Amino acid sequence: MVSSVHTVALLGLSARIVTVEADVSDGMPVFDMVGYLANEVREARERVKTALKNNKIVIPPKRITVNLSPGDIKKNGTSFDLAVALALMASLQVIPGESLKDCMVFGELSLTGEIKPVYGVLPMVIEARNSGCKRCIVPADNALEGRAVEDMEIIGLSSLKEALGFFNEGIRPETENRMEKEETTTDRSPDFSDVNGQETVKRAMEIAAAGMHNILLIGPPGSGKTMLAKRLPTILPALSQKESMEITKIYSVAGKLKCGQGLIRSRPFVSPHHTVTPQALAGGGSIPRPGECSLAHRGVLFLDELPEFTRSSLEILRQPLEDKEVHISRTHGDFVFPADFLLCAAMNPCKCGYYPDMKKCTCTEGDVKQYLSRISGPLLDRIDICAEASRISFSDIRCSRKSESSAAIRDRVERAALIQQERYRGTKLRFNADLSASDLQRFCRLDEAEEEFMQNAYEALSLSARVYHRILKVARTIADLEGSERIRKSHLSEAVGFKSIDRRYWHG
């Protein structure tokens, strides 16, 4: 007797419907699995056999064949276990085959019959909904993740025993009534009010957050660069429902979601160590998974001690910074992972960290140039804002007056974000940083005086076309923060100032 049930195969962030067919017939006692299977999928045979035996389900000495169709898609992972078990149970008439119709099934089995969580449930459920399915059977620990998808009934099962009760008697599992746990923390979140001084850097970070501009912080050790960078997510605009779904989907495929976690509601802050490999940064592997760039999607990718990263790791950032996505090619397919992040980088100006303070700096001119040359010109061109963090004065350290809070800064940032949302309604643009060269002609028009100012700056600073465009984007954000419809000279002047600091170090 042949029985079947549907499941889903993950291909990067996308998914394909797979039909699991089980046939039990007379012949030599054997258990075969076919359908272009990876090793971990072939191993499902032993997990399923033992799990059924330990739940008092007898597999007769017959010829058993399980096919995962279509056969031209490589099946990876352990999420097929439960589908194989249910299809086989239906063939053995342990559960009615009719009950598996219009169901999508995902889950890994332990030898005791426990249904264990798997990664990638959110994109699987989305693909199930898109195919017209109305019900998904998932591990209980993945149920909240699956319920983020609208118009889909999610049944969370924790064991084969619960599966038998549900399919034979319609008994709903107790785990169905679990409520989503809100993420709470007993520690106070980082806040800009903790940082005294560095007003120029705070202003730069406010502009960066409002327009999602890439930013570089440069200054001596102990000036608060890392401390400020860790507080950048606290002033970013709140996530929309669509953005939460995008981020959760990436973390689900990467296996980074905690058990019982629902949608991610806060913007990611990803800070890889400078020893990170290019593959870990961009993503990849024989079975491609999202890298650090994609895990920072819609959030912040923070690179501390930027020159200490390998040249190959830094150069791999150029494509995602420009295209907002990472492309990975393998023999069995091409994969695309989103990587629309705000790059925040921090660095010392030289090895000892004190250049250009020649009273403290112990580096030679050649040492300084060699250190700075680790950051390529093309990468620098893709950074919109460069802010100089100066040495903290004693009066700033001892100041008892509270600095402005993250909440106050975030209010201004969100007002500017709403202005951009209205301006770009009906387009694919979200923030000023997304503007292309052609978009600038439409959204960043300059009056005659401002045009002349930029012409003089372009020639005096020997700007590239890319840098010129980035200055206009930053000026547009500064104008939005002030609620100004037109870009004024004061906005352009501040934007030029933030872009000319890096030129002082690299071209001075």
Throw out a few tags for this protein.
4-stranded mixed sheet; alpha/beta; single chain; elongated; Rossmann fold; 5-stranded parallel sheet; 21 helices; Ribosomal Protein S5, domain 2; 18 strands
Question: In angstroms, what separates the terminal alpha carbons?
Answer: 79 Å
Helix content: 25-40%
Lateral arrangement of strands in the main beta sheet: 11-14-17-10-18
Number of helices: 21
Q: What is the domain tally?
A: 2
Task: Assign an overall shape.
Answer: elongated
Number of beta-strand segments: 18
Could you name the CATH topology of the largest domain?
Rossmann fold
Largest sheet: 5 strands, parallel
Strand content is 15-25%
CATH homologous superfamily of the largest domain - what is it?
Answer: P-loop containing nucleotide triphosphate hydrolases
Oligomer: single chain
The name of the CATH architecture of the largest domain is 3-Layer(aba) Sandwich
Any idea of the CATH class of the largest domain? Alpha Beta
